[in-house]
Write a structure and sequence with these properties.
UDP-N-acetylmuramoyl-L-alanine:D-glutamate ligase; five-stranded parallel β-sheet; four-stranded mixed β-sheet; 10 helices
Length: about 300
Amino acid sequence: MAKYDVLALGDYYIDYIFTGLPSFPELGKEVFSQQFAAVPGGTYNAVIAMHRLGVKVGWAGDFGNDEFSKQVMAAARQEGLDCSLFEVHKQALRKITVSASFADDRAFISYCDPDPALPAGLKRLPTTSARVLFLPGLYTGDLLEVGSRLVKLKGMKLVMDGNSSHATLAETPGLEKVLRLADVFMPNAREARRITGLDDLEGALRRLGEFCRLVVVKDGANGSYACQNQTITYARGMKVEPVDTTGAGDCFDAGFITAWLEGKPMALCLKWGNVVGALSTTALGGTGRVITRNEVETCLKNWEG
């Protein structure tokens, strides 16, 4: 049975990133960006960031016979990632996002071909062992419940990002149950406020903490927060000159999980996330900047004085 520190389940994307825009695009008006990149994204961001930090990570991802899938698989192999859990289908499986990126936020347009009936994650989970199962988004539904039972039987921790555009406690059936399944839930501040319906971030943290034993909220340059047993820990953000924030949350996840797996104190786990997330914004795409363990440790030492 294959053994990893982290088993990641989730989709790849190809990110088309436009930055240095003079204004937000409008109907009937053409704008030109100063920089452009077409780079792997989605689950790739967190997986590669963890891999570069020395985490043994496996990615059970679905790919097709299209050029977008081939580009991401080639990039993963070039990074030296263990690609044995990839599931390659004899059909197109295109996952594309166009990002209009600004210094403090971005807007997306995405397209996805239909998912396979049996995703790679469920196919690989029975024959794979890991300390952590990482889901890069907020998932609901029967497949999650089935998979979570197997995760618990294997003694794995379930870590779930909060990436979602619509889920709320008030209107999404079964969301409370999903949050109770997670050992760690990691939304950003906007997602935490939307999910709970609370504008006050501390209130949103505590509300989510009623369902999940550890909630970690990413607030960009403002820093990050953790709520564990209704105790809140805060770590300030690291100042950088951002080029592109695409994938910064994924990279925060990678830094936090790396430190959390090593049993570091909660405040230090947050700082690891803050550093990796901040450094990722200094280049185009979530993994355009190569971030190593030595660099993170050096940044933490200098940043803390």
